[in-house]
Amino acid sequence: xxNRKELNPDRSPREKFGLLVRGLRDERGWTQEELARxxxxxxxxxxxxxxxxxxxxxxxxxxxxxxxxxxxxxxxQSKAGLQTSxxxxxxxxxxxxxxxxxxxxxxxxxxxxxxxxxEYAQELAQGAVERDDITPEQAVDRVDVLIRRxxxxxxxxxxxxxxxxxxxxxxxxxxxxxxMRAQFDRLLEFARMSxxxxxxxxxxxGARKPLVRMVSLLTLPDRSLVxxxxxxxxxxxxxxxSSVLPLVKNxxxxxxxAASQAESVAMIEQLRKGTL
Length: 276
Prior knowledge:
The protein is an alpha/beta fold. It is built from 12 helices and 6 strands. It folds into 2 domains: 13-82, 434 Repressor (Amino-terminal Domain), CATH 1.10.260.40; 90-274, Endonuclease, Chain A (2-Layer Sandwich), CATH 3.30.870.
C-alpha cells in the first residue's frame, strides 16, 4: 500500500495498539473509511489511532470491540496504553533524537536521562513509585525506555552532543555514595568522548541563566530543528522555527556563561572525592 506508515510496536503503546487495530481491519478487508462508518466516526480519526498520532479513548476502544466482536480485548489494551510511563509526544521525540546530527541538552535537578547510570535511573523511578506518581510496572518501563534511548545514541557517525547541567544536577544526592560515585564516573567518561561537550551552569549565574527548566534541542540531518520541553506532567514537541530558534539562542548564551568543560570536570571530580 502506498505511503503506509511503518509501525513499531516497541516504540510506544499507541503504535502497538494502532498496529493491532490495523491488523484486525486488514483481516476483514475493510478500508479505514469502511471501519469508520461502522464506528460512527471519520476515516481521519481511524487513521490517527492506527498510526499512533491519537490515543484511543475507552469509548472508542469499546466501539472497536463491538465492531470486531472481541469482547473487551481492545478496551483492556487501550487501558494498558494509557498507563505508559512516557509523556505524550516523547516517543516521537525519541525517534528524532535517534537520527539527529547534533543534540543539545539542558537539565536542572537531575542528571539528563541519556547520561544516567541504570542504578541512578532506578532510584529516580523508585522514588516516583513511592510518591504514587507511577506504578512499579511503569517504573520498570521507564528504565527500559531509558536504556534503549542510550543505546540509540551509540551509532556511526556519532552525533555531536552538548550537555549543560545546572549545578543542582550534580549536587543532588540520588541513592547512596556508590550510586553517586558511579554516576560521576559516567559523566567524566562522557566528557572524555571526542564528540561531546559537558558543562555545568553554576549557581552563581543566578538570574543570568537563560534557561530554567529542561530542554532538548535537535539538529536533524537535513538541518531542521526540533525542541522538546518538559514539566513534571507534560511534554511539548516543537518543530516551528519561530519558537525553536529563541531556545537555540538561549542555549548558546547558556553555554557562553556556564563553566568551561575543564572547570566542570574539576567540579565533578571534587564532588566524586567527597563520596568516597
